[in-house]
Automatic annotation (TrEMBL):
Keywords: Amino-acid biosynthesis, Decarboxylase, Lyase, Lysine biosynthesis, Pyridoxal phosphate. Its cofactor is pyridoxal 5'-phosphate. It comes from Alcanivorax hongdengensis A-11-3. The active site is at 341 (proton donor). The keyword Nucleotide-binding does not apply. It is an enzyme of class 4 (lyase). Belongs to the Orn/Lys/Arg decarboxylase class-II family. LysA subfamily. The keyword Hydrolase does not apply. This is Diaminopimelate decarboxylase. Pathway: Amino-acid biosynthesis; L-lysine biosynthesis via DAP pathway; L-lysine from DL-2,6-diaminopimelate: step 1/1. The gene is lysA. Homodimer.
Length: 413
């Protein structure tokens, strides 16, 4: 069920009219639906049935504390990629024992913080990282639990910027070199081998790349077991895509089933979905400032911009843009552009819409990689974030002020 639906000719977020929320909190604005976040998490979690598993939500998709807290209350684990994300998860009430730490550039400080917090597993992405982790754990007189993130050289068939499992990508360790690195890990005194990790990319809309990667991971599992290296879980990463336009990604249950049918026995499985949990749990609301029809093109200049939502500019990503209160003014084809001084500042191009100045528009599927990638470019205050829960709305991040932006800067003496 979609929690952003039209009722009596206007868009609602759960039980609240979006127009009312925009009037109350201003625009541009991110709105999240608690019920949708919970439903999406449960769709993954329940698909495992009795199979031992942990769904580790990829924090990078949307790291708002309230979003993390909603998911922590559902029993989620978390996939983090920085000390900042670690701190967010802990402050949101996440269980450290359900945290996995991915990323190619963990610093010694980040490793130490994660070790002290008692996280479940480090997803190690290089030989050099393994050596440093061993040293850092040694200094703390601890053992670091690890999986090695392998790069299976599988084409995820997604946008090149968000494909991670090809030999040319910086992520993970060449799967052919992994046995030697596991051997090294086995010898290191402050490393404890737990699992194998693999994540091949984001916004995948087919099952076959996941299955190809898993096949290679299972071969590695056999090789390791033959060498007496025990593996206690497989982490198969995230990456399941969502429908922005015409895409038809597999449902979470079908994706989980496709993985589980290859898993030997009851070997525990971790997954790290981000987008599939958060994207369609959020919308981005913006108001038309000016209409600027020209002979060649019609521009609708809105108060939201690439600094608030960069996916269209960065990846030419298409996200649906819908009127909050549809009306019958004459319909034209508009480029929906923001106030930022860049030609690439657009939220959507060539959209057929009936628009008046002052209208509210909602960019759909904005809950993942939306606010999380927002910046202060052009010294714009980042938008407020609101969590809607039934007929209640909570400010989960206040709209920034210029003072917020400036507080870390200073003049020369
Ligand atoms: C290691 C890792 N895990 C999980 C994810 C989450 O991916 P997605 O949001 O596509 O599910 C990413 C991002 O692609 C990632 O790099
Ligand atoms: N930021 C990307 C996804 C990146 C995935 C990170 N591993 C997007 O918006 O599609």
């Amino acid at each position: 069920m979609d929690h952003f639906q039209y009722r009596d000719g206007e868009l609602f977020a759960e039980e609240l009219p979006v127009e009312q929320l925009a009037a109350r909190f201003g625009t541009p604005l991110y709105l999240y639906s608690r019920a949708t976040l919970e439903r999406h998490f449960q769709a993954f979690d329940e698909a495992f049935g009795d199979h031992p598993h942990q769904v580790c939500y990829a924090v990078k998709a949307n790291s708002n504390l309230a979003v993390l807290n909603v998911l922590a209350r559902c029993g989620a684990g978390f996939d983090i990629v920085s000390g900042g994300e670690l701190e967010r998860v802990l402050r949101a009430g996440g269980d450290p024992d359900k945290i996995v730490f991915s990323g190619v550039g963990k610093t010694a400080e980040e490793m130490a913080a994660a070790l002290k917090a008692g996280i479940h597993c480090f997803n190690v992405e290089s030989a050099a990282e393994l050596e440093l982790l061993n040293l850092v754990a040694g200094e703390l007189d601890l053992q670091a639990p690890i999986a090695i993130r392998v790069n299976p050289d599988v084409d995820a068939q997604t946008h090149p910027y968000i494909s991670t499992g090809l030999k040319d990508n910086k992520f993970g360790v060449d799967i052919d070199k992994a046995p030697a690195l596991y051997q090294r890990a086995h010898e290191l005194p402050h490393i404890r081998i737990l699992g194998i990790d693999c994540h091949i990319g984001s916004q995948l809309t087919k099952l076959s790349p996941f299955e190809d990667a898993l096949e290679r991971v299972l071969k590695l599992l056999d090789q390791l077991q033959a060498h007496g290296i025990e593996i206690q879980h497989l982490d198969l990463g995230g990456g399941l895509g969502v429908t922005y336009d015409q895409e038809t990604p597999p449902a979470p249950a079908d994706y989980v089933q496709a993985l589980l049918k290859h898993i030997p026995g009851d070997l525990p499985v971790h997954i790290e979905p981000g987008r599939a949990i958060a994207a369609n749990a959020g919308i981005f609301v913006t108001q038309v400032l000016f209409l600027k029809p020209t002979e060649h093109k019609n521009f609708a200049i809105v108060d939201g911009a690439m600094n608030d939502l960069i996916r269209p500019s960065l990846y030419s990503a298409w996200q649906n843009i819908v009127p909050v209160k549809p009306h019958d003014a004459d319909c034209r084809t508009w480029d929906i552009v923001g106030p930022v001084c860049e030609t690439g500042d657009f939220l959507g191009k060539e959209r057929a819409l009936s628009l008046d100045t002052g209208d509210l528009l909602a960019v759909r599927s904005a809950g993942a990689y939306g606010f999380a990638m927002a910046s202060n470019y052009n010294s714009r205050n980042r938008p407020a974030e609101i969590m809607v829960d039934g007929d209640q709305a909570f400010v989960v991040r206040q709209r920034e002020t210029v003072d917020d932006q400036l507080k870390l800067e200073s003049l020369l003496p």
